């Protein structure tokens, strides 16, 4: 948890700019040779350097102030010398001060150990006398110069009769000065001022300059909420500067440590995934620097130590802090909650129980859910399994009506992980029946529990919570109780394992799916044998014929028979993983499973054939399944068919194969129009028209493109979107990759499409249409017309003139099976592929 409070006042600092003090003293008690107040010097100047500086600045003027101003200045000087920064500074006390116009030249010298004097430049002088690096000195000098210029400008404005305007600017100037000490806000509204690490100079400490640059970033913390980039940049800058900082930890101000802790310990896990490791490192550095951690910081540091693997050391540190942190009301609860979690995970269950008793029996407010790690630790051992159940009961009693479904899920998950199946089942029964049904110790389950509907709800909840392994344990356990899961429930479990994509889970999914397929094939084989015999056969329970399970595997025999969904789930997995041989084995099993053929499995096999260079077999499978086995194709079927053409498979185009693709593509299109199918998903609704148009474009079938566009407009409600027009104009579908060639293609294509749209708008305007207020139907017609014009441009680029192309449109319409459809409203309505409104 984050620190409870950062009661820091960074608006107060012991540092006062020496030049300011010098100028203020000169304003009160003018000397014969007053120093310029804007010429900044270090506090430890030697007498010799100070005399040289006074001689070099003898041109400065004497300033005389009124008694009231004199008194105010004396008060201001006293505050600054005491390390106090006033809430507001009345700059009007300086408005009568005369500021010299000309530049002042100052030379610096230093006497070495050998007694010789050598000249110094400004950077060397700053390092020698003040310890400030050049970057800090330059920033301060720049700020002072801006202040002088601002005051000079205000004085001139007032002397020129612009008192009102000058007063407004003076107030703005004072406000901006005050804001210099604010800008960053901690999680509990602390205000951090100018955060900076000084005392390091030279090229070897550039990493510290980078860290200072990060600390000066205005957007680091605003309203107490750092951004994910701020957290990452913070650790990047700090880790790079650690080596340099370790040479002089004392140069890091307390304010910087506190601010780094706020960012590094930010609790949002998605934005700070390495939080505990960073806290561990930062806490070690702060200890090395002699920084005393606050109680809340110590708790976080102990937790980070435990997470990083120093478990015994963390627990020992926690024990030692019982008198300091564990006895304070503000940290009492957090202290014992941390101890309970660490002790439970470390296996010290007895001490964890005592800590839990101390916490729950105290008057401090505590959450009974802290018993969850104790329940987990008790359930892990056979000797304490019953105590884990008692602890769960106690937590439930303490929560009362506050016990939520998510709490039951957590308890069930802990019991399943420890293989306490009876406890897990009883906890789920408690959740479903509010504790009114007790099944513990019973060999025969009540009817309310002993049914597939009840099992299905439990499995669905476990799978939805991302625990397919726990769901499988439930299936095995309930089978021993005489309750078998249904194929639908097991299909869900198989799908969950496959979605996890881990090798172990995928293997479990395949094993269970093939067990279901074998059960299906056995049932079909037995049914065939029974139909050929006069006497009915008596089935022998195959559960007893199965080989004995190994010690690692639970005893389970799958009696649920595979369905079409089982084959489809496995087929999709094999196809996506490129396991063509396994897919063919699955297809052979499917043909013997006596299940009505489905288009999904056919589509997956066609897709796999095409990906493995067997496009002809994919097409043969399509004709065989649709003609001989009465499989109804769908949109994915025709998508797979068009992808079998050579222009979609081969990198190097073959002109002869492209000519064959023209005829095959028109044939596939005719079959697509004739087949009785409907769009059922938005994704394929957008992909199929795009694939068809690009296929014909690459094959050079411009007449077919025009007919396809008109047909899809009538049957699919297809209107080419602007991105598709741009891709077709560029002649490539890979414009998302930003290469130099693609950028040039996009620019040319964009100009072409814009010109076509402009020409079409001009023609519409000549027809009397208001091109600025087109209806949705008129806009769709415009896009279709632009597409046709674009196709004509593409054809002309290949020496095919529009007059030569138009006579081929009727031929293309006949080959594509739409010659008698496009002008017949009845035929169009009969062949439409849209269900409702697919977007």
From TrEMBL:
Keywords: Repeat. SUPFAM superfamilies: TPR-like. The keyword Repeat applies. PPR repeats lie at residues 598-633. InterPro entries: PPR_rpt, TPR-like_helical_dom_sf. Binds to mitochondrial small subunit 15S rRNA. Regulates mitochondrial small subunit maturation by controlling 15S rRNA 5'-end processing. Localizes to the 5' precursor of the 15S rRNA in a position that is subsequently occupied by mS47 in the mature yeast mtSSU. Uses structure and sequence-specific RNA recognition, binding to a single-stranded region of the precursor and specifically recognizing bases -6 to -1. The exchange of Ccm1 for mS47 is coupled to the irreversible removal of precursor rRNA that is accompanied by conformational changes of the mitoribosomal proteins uS5m and mS26. Belongs to the CCM1 family. This is Pentatricopeptide repeat protein. It comes from Cercophora newfieldiana.
